[in-house]
Amino acid sequence: MSKFNSVTAVMENKVMPIANKFGQQRHLAAIRDAFISLLPITLAGGLVAIISSPPVTEETTNGFLLAWEKFALNNAEVLNWVFAFTLGAMSLYVCIGITHFLCRFYKVNSFIPILFSTMGFFLLVTQPQELGFDAKTLEFSFIDGKGLLSAILIGIGTTELYRIMQQKEFGKIKMPPSVPASLSDVFASLIPGIVIIVGYTIVYAIFNSFDTNMAQAMFDFLSPTFKSADSLAFVIFITILTHIFWFFGIHDAALGGVMGPIRDGNISINAAAQMAGEQLPHIFTTSFWTYFTAIGGAGSVIGLAFLLIFLAKSKQLKNVGKVGVVPALFNISEPLIFGIPLMLNPMFLIPFLLTSTLNATISYICMSIGLVGKTFSMLSWQMPPFIGAFFSTLDWKAFVLVILLMILDAILYYPFVKAYDRQLTKRELESMAETDTKS
């Protein structure tokens, strides 16, 4: 126990302050908030991806599924167009979101910087195919998850350049007091805007001279890194790290600015591949994490909640289970984490780390060998995981897999629950005996 206390002290005094600063770092916080704010867009794109992908084969005879397939085929153009500007344009919205949230941190009006970011995004992420008077054709396949890194750099770079020039009053055109404030802001942004536009034009010209654009060049260069972030080793590492943070009371939002671009970018790429009828390239996505790894929230606590309800003799644990089971079914684990508690409780350290890690490992292997379909849509963090698993893959085997993983999680928690339940039951009986003696 003394060793555990010393580890706890190190986490509280050394790691937690660093993790909190990391989570509050302005650029990472802006990235995290931008991804969180995209929920309506990702939800709409996920629904379109599902509607466009009826689970039918040549042997399908079910009338509903065949009608679904007919609807998807008849409306393919509309569905593809809607998808292209929802989940298929994730990078564009992330760029806008980062600019907005970073401006809000600096207390700068975000409208003009958003205009410059959007202009820079289209200049550096899309590729002109035809620029005639009657028509302008762009190749914009990198505005989905493949262009996320460029979108992040453009959003941050634009905001920082604009802020610095504004603070230094670089090229500021001062207007008489009688001029409306909105018009004064426009004139004050003229020179900074010209500098930013010229900068992005130079960058575009450099990449264009190599017959590419910034997004494609960065994606091709970093492809080995993206592949390693989709490996089983990385999934295990990030699962353990996240749950160590949770165990010591550090919310996984501290990692959101780093993990968001990876998981959300992968789901966007998978969704685009699904819409195109191609093989899905990625396993580690937002849906994989939500529905197949942290089943019921951090610690994968759905199975634990049912154990407490049906097997615990301790009144405290039984009541916590009753309170926590419904939130856990909707991926909210805090009532159980803080009610049992799981946080800073050495009795539960092993199963708390082990359950989600095994969930991730088993699910990863099942998807990599084709036993279960990969995820391509993300509907909601609060959707029950066994339902979300099906809709994110349109594979009935995903539903079965998550149910089996929930049972496995309960089995892993069982011996630790029994031991802890005995401790608490003994304390409760002793407390009741003391009360009876006093009365």
Automatic annotation (TrEMBL):
GO terms for molecular function: protein-N(PI)-phosphohistidine-sugar phosphotransferase activity. GO terms for biological process: N,N'-diacetylchitobiose import; phosphoenolpyruvate-dependent sugar phosphotransferase system. It is found in: Cell membrane. InterPro entries: PTS_EIIC (IPR003352), PTS_EIIC_3 (IPR004501), PTS_IIC_cello (IPR004796), PTS_Sugar-EIIC/EIIB (IPR051088). It is a multi-pass membrane protein. It comes from the Bacteria. Keywords: Cell membrane, Membrane, Sugar transport, Transmembrane, Transmembrane helix, Transport. The chain crosses the membrane at residues 34-52, 78-103, 110-127, 147-165, 186-207, 231-250, 288-312, 332-354, 361-379, 399-417. This is Permease IIC component. The phosphoenolpyruvate-dependent sugar phosphotransferase system (PTS), a major carbohydrate active -transport system, catalyzes the phosphorylation of incoming sugar substrates concomitant with their translocation across the cell membrane. GO terms for cellular component: plasma membrane. Residues 11-416 form the PTS EIIC type-3 domain. Its main location: membrane.
